[in-house]
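Backbone geometry:
***
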Amino acid sequence: MNYTDPHPQSGPKIIPRPEHALSRADISNNALKVLYRLKKAGYQAFLVGGGVRDLLLKINPKDFDVVTDALPDEVRALFRNCRLIGKRFRLAHVHFGREVIEVVTFRSSADGIKNERKHSDTGRIIRDNSYGTISEDIWRRDFTVNALYYNIADFSIWDYTSGLQDIASRTLRLIGDPKTRYREDPVRMLRAIRFASKLNFQIARESSFPIRNLGVLLKDVPPARLYDETLKLFHAGHSVNSFEKLLEFDLLKYLFPHTAASLKSDKNGNILRFIRKGLENTDKRVQVGEPVTPMFLYAIFLWQPILDYAKKIRAEEKLSQIEALLNASDDLVAEQQNHTSYPRRFSTPMKDVLAMQLRFEHRRGARAHRLLGNRRFRAAYDFLLIRAACGEVDQELADWWTNVQTLTPVEQRKAFSLQSKRSNRHHSAN
């Protein structure tokens, strides 16, 4: 099977400024400051990666990364607002208020005494601090579309691979042998899904073919890193696409194993429909600039597994419905930590949101009225709307909670009191 040769003999294809559409006017002023200062100090300086890719695709880049032949300590000497970070990869962060420009020294792919690259038994890179030239650095990048260099010296673009061609054909292609590259860093499989979902690209056949068989390597990735990658997959406005591709390549089970198990027994498609609806809600919020939280995302994915487990332990331990739900939440969140970390600051409010789903069913009296003032009410209410849209609860229940929010405080008290009277009449009649 063909793949992009990791060690070609020829140099880059250089596209001069008049022949490409990337303009300095679209680059962050702070990124330009870094590029120009490096150049003035006698170093090579290139904009690289997603910033170049997105500008060529007419997408507003999330951030701008710089690569240079200056060593990290030399970068720090040029910028008072610079901090060096990283153990596996030593790099510089130049801070301009909230914007951070990442500056990375060219890395080497050569073997030899100066090479500080170390692999695990499975082939995963665990230390990598060897420096080199741009012609070596290019083969350390993952995808061809992320391996385009914008040269601040003459505003040209350097393309060592098929990056520009793949952008034109909307193809995501790994540089080098896919099996080797995935073994070096299994998270590249998730990155392939993320970029394909974000950019609406097709993953090249030779790059997608090994993913199903190598997905098990994700078990060796630290849960904290998988948590970060999970948020990138689902909090960037393309979560539905990411979810579909995780299912296609059978990778969801390495991020949310209990959810994947629930989906296998989802004969009528209700669980799948619920997750899609929840992710659509998340994508809409991202697209209009509204905040999103891991709490809601994990609630969407863990809701059905928690319900199933709560039903089981309720029968076994003679617990109330709410007790069983809370205990099931505790147990499944603890297990989830073994796969993707989940900070307590998000897991605790998630339990509140899930517990409120049961409390929404009781609409009478002061206790029900107090739900409107609960700081988790809005998230729990949004969750209720998704459940109603999927037929998990009656639409009438969701409509009632929608309408009661439009009432004045006096009218709200009457509404909850009326529900109490109706409930009392119902019990009397029985």
User: Anything to note?
Assistant: The chain has two domains: 13-171, 270-423. The radius of gyration is 26 Å. The mean pLDDT is 90. The CA atoms of residues 205 and 271 lie 30 Å apart.
